[in-house]
Design goal:
220 residues; mainly alpha; Growth Hormone, Chain: A; 12 helices; globular
């Protein structure tokens, strides 16, 4: 009974557990791969250092601008389908980096998995709003924020451990393989536990990008 009360208080259902597991696992792989991507691009040449610097600048740009167009995706697409798509793009990005060890392919694959956090954010928030009653929305968003901190803390440690064990090049490739496995596992748990959009209740807001800006209060 106490466990059921705690789960009810935290707003934990099979759907939210699957969603949070996906956020933790895919996010952990993203942090492992993204943090050490510049190491993978570094070769004993100035050109390699230039490419590594561009890669490090690309990461904050993706996270800054990608949520804006992604905010409209869940309104035209089912939220579950949107997250399935972005998970698949992240998995494809890892595969490109693992299978094609060229700097051009590495940068192209990085676009797919670095943007995962930003692009998945609107759909994740939308699913929380639909899976939980209104009085549990804040709890759901808070738990997602806490779960999201786990990859931020553990990802660099695990990636660094892989480099310490296997060396720089092989260690970063090992980190990408682990990230791929985590992304696949997170997608499987998400697909099994999160219900289909048609079976979800809750509110839907046909906003899109323009509608989101119109909801912002005017300046006083």
């Amino acid at each position: 009974m106490k466990g059921e009360r705690l789960a009810a208080f935290l707003g934990l259902t099979s759907g939210t557990v699957g969603l949070f597991a996906m956020v933790a696992l895919v996010g952990l792989g993203e942090r492992m791969a993204e943090r050490f991507l510049p190491v993978y691009l570094l070769l004993p040449s100035a050109a390699a250092r230039w490419r590594s610097g561009c890669c490090r600048r690309w990461t904050p740009c993706c996270r800054l601008f990608m949520p804006i167009p992604a905010a409209g995706w869940p309104n035209g697409w089912a939220r579950r389908r949107t997250l399935t798509l972005v998970n698949g793009l992240a998995i494809a990005g890892y595969l490109v980096v693992i299978l094609v060890p060229r700097w051009e392919a590495v940068l192209a694959g990085a676009i797919l998995f670095i943007a995962w956090s930003a692009v998945s954010l609107p759909a994740t928030m939308g699913l929380i709003a639909r899976m939980l009653p209104r009085n549990k929305h804040t709890m759901g968003v808070t738990l997602r924020a806490l779960v999201r901190r786990i990859p931020v803390a553990l990802g660099p440690l695990l990636g660094g451990a892989a480099i310490a064990i296997a060396g720089e090049e092989a260690g970063v490739r090992l980190a990408f393989v682990v990230a791929l496995v985590l992304a696949v596992l997170g997608s499987i748990l998400y697909g099994r536990l999160v219900p289909d959009d048609r079976s979800l209740g809750g509110e839907t807001l046909p906003l899109g990008v323009r509608g989101t800006f119109r909801l912002m209060p005017p300046r006083n």
